[in-house]
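SEQUENCE-TO-STRUCTURE ENTRY
===========================
What this section holds: a protein sequence and its matching fold, both as plain text.
Tokens: labelled as protein backbone structure tokens, with as many entries as the chain has residues.
Question of interest: how does this chain fold, as expressed in backbone structure tokens?
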Amino acid sequence: MAGYNTIRGKRKRHDVQRLFRRGYIKTLNDVWKLLNNDTFVPQPCKHKPIYDSGKWRTLTIPVLTPDRIVDHCIIDNTEDYLYKLYITQTYACIKGRGIHKCLNDLTRYLHKDKRGTRYCLKIDIRHYYDSIDHAVLKRIMARYFGDTRLLALQYKIIDSVEGDTGLGIGRLPSQHWANLYLTPFDHRVKEVWRVRYYLRYMDDMVFLHRSKAYLHALLDEIRQYLKDELKLEIKPNWQIFPVDARSIDFVGYKSNHYNTLARKSILYRYWRKLRKVQNQHNLFETNELWQTLSAHNGWLQHCTPQHYQVIISRTINQLLNMATTTLKRGLHSAKAQPTFDVIDRINGTTLYNHNQHFVETTNEQGKKTKENEYDSLLVKYPVTANTVFAALLTARYDANTENKLLNDYNAALLGIEDESKKQPYLDFLAERKALRAMVDADCTSNGIPME
């Protein structure tokens, strides 16, 4: 089962393909022998920097065999037991809980007892994964696990990290062990300090109470316990504040007693994605747009209905405003677009994608790639060569452009203006003729009638 979980959804990756070429069953047998003989030794991991949530993090990537299979062996056999150790108010990396269960519980607390949740203490741990002490983690494991061979195997993986502190972000057991590390603290909060309203998502913690003085006193006890027992330090940006004055910025939402709003950074990301999708794909239908932005829409649906409706209304307005721009020039795509792309089959609205040609571009990594560059024109029903040409002229030239050029041309013929005034009108006629030839050729090759 651990072998299957390791490669599930990754069949096309090169390391998984190499595993099958080497022999899947043989590899599993080799891993079993290592575990059975207690000869497993963790291999050096790769490290990859990523930018996530406004900060740089370093991912730890273990080799596929045997390390990742061993990781799954450990977690597949201990996961259910670990869940029984956690209190119900911890949510990260636990099946059936997660961000939205945490949000729902926080909302329930706020609505259930407005007086008892008047103030909020919000803290998180400074460099949490890097600060986890190996000796303390082993002591906590020894308290809960009685199998000496399992403990020895877990100790090997912990000791494979250089130094006396730290767990590799991205390695499967790390997230479960990071949860386990704070489990004694969770039980102390609920069973010794008797904090009624407490939620923890990994190292982010929220405490709610009616008294600000109580939260200040609690903060001192928390700081002392984390320092003495777990060798952890609270970030200096801890906050104690009235809930309705500032709202609780937690798990991607801002919550108070009356509303649940999306975090500002989430909204910025949503609007950027909306503009990017429209510019790349020319989406003007609402249904098609929501299919593309389904992940963002699913996130926003957990906000208060009034707030969600405001976001939807602004989205529709932005959609309509962009749709009124009938001609977009210099668009890019990975491959050639259909010359005539029907985007609204009910109303017959069609995109006329023309001037398509491949250009060489340089991406952020400095690698040169080829992209399709083109112009896109919105044409309403009926779509014929004449209506396409008329829409293209209207979009490219102002209504008075031709009249002004023609007046200058006639004035030059009569000697009123300089001879150079003739050429702009002649250039305009030549470009108009070329546009007509382009439209006629595209319509003929795609079966579009002339009239």
